[in-house]
Amino acid sequence: MQRVFSGIQPTGNIHIGNYLGAIKNWVELQHKYESLFCIVDYHAITVEYEPELLHKRVLELAATLIASGIDPEKSVLFVQSSVPEHTELTWLFTCITSIGALERMTQFKEKAERHKGAVFAGLMNYPVLMASDILIYKAEVVPVGEDQIQHLELTREIARRFNSMFGEVFPEPQPILTKTARIMALNDPTSKMSKSIEGSYIAMDDDDDTIRKKIRRAVTDVGPQGGEMGPGVKNLFTLLEAFAEPALVERFRADYANQTLRYADLKYELGEAIVRALAPIRERTFDLLAKQAELMEILDAGAKQARKLAQATMEEVREAMGFKMPVA
Ligand code: ADP
Asked: Is the shortest distance between the CB of 9 and ligand 1 below 6 Å?
């Protein structure tokens, strides 16, 4: 079995875009690969954050992942900061990564622009930490969205450079492009659903009525009308495909083609479908959060498994790079 690694940031307000674009995909991957899924809390501090909320967000994300179907018996689920070797390897990789390559990263340029005045080195080095996350487990495949392709290419470059300088240690991980459509903002279907846009998302812990209300209010009337579907309606169909039975999707598609589709009906059925899908996940999430000690134990067990692998890689790396002193 090939090994897969993927990470997700504990940045709060986990929404159905994250669920459909990342989490659901992980749930499928764990049956096909030896899977390591990591809550990357060290990545969440490259821009301003609230320290008193960090731990709460880590636990919420862990609970949501398990409630959504990540099985800690099948996958290694753990928190990045529980395995300090990630940052150890990051330093070593920093010494073989050019500043130019990091400055060219699209995400860095965008974030540096957005956080002007508070651009710290961590923001630029983020892709080096990501390379360490992946390579420390010698992961062969990494599920990525379009926006992470460039970072994964850098990971491959770092692996190649390391291998050519110090000897063959790392595989070059292959991307598997996540196939789910990008979920758009409910209040502005021309930009993507995001936790940073208020009103754009349905959170995984929204209650039934909030879900219904948000779908009722979703924007449908922008973009071309008639033949081609406007972005808002298209987005509702994407969600319907993800959450409802195929027969219902077919029926609404036919109505759309016949120009008999009433958006109110579509929204009603979509709202109900999302409620049906999310309610049990939400309940399981709350149950897990109520038993915090158990949740911490699951994460600790995952971290112990991950750390064993990480330590074995670090031994090879230290040896290859010429560090002969024992670790105290
Ligand atoms: P946000 O944009 O809300 O800050 P993140 O950047 O933390 O979300 O994304 C976490 C994961 O969820 C990533 O794998 C990302 O590709 C996926 N994701 C985020 N928003 C969407 C979306 N609107 N549609 C599909 N996938 C998404």
From this structure: yes
What is the set of active-site residues? Answer: 111, 192, 195
- 162/179 Cα distance (integer angstroms): 31
Report the residue among 8, 18, 57 best suited for mutation to probe ligand 1: largest number of ligand atoms under 8 A from its CB: 18
Tell me the per-residue pLDDT of 55-93, one tens digit each, with 9 for 90 and over.
999 999 999 999 999 999 999 999 999 999 999 999 999
Is the CB of 64 within 6 Å of ligand 1?
no
pLDDT at 225: 54
| Domains, the chain, ordered by start | 3-180+291-321 (3.40.50.620), 208-286 (1.10.240.10)
Residue closest to 69 by CA, chosen among 21, 28, 10, 12: 28
| Ligand 1 contacts CB of residue 22 (under 6 A) | yes
- Dist. CA 33–CA 23, nearest whole Å: 15
What letter would DSSP give residue 22? I
Distance from Cα 166 to the centre of ligand 1, integer Å:
36
Asked if residues 215 and 274 have their Cβ atoms less than 8 Å apart, the reply is yes
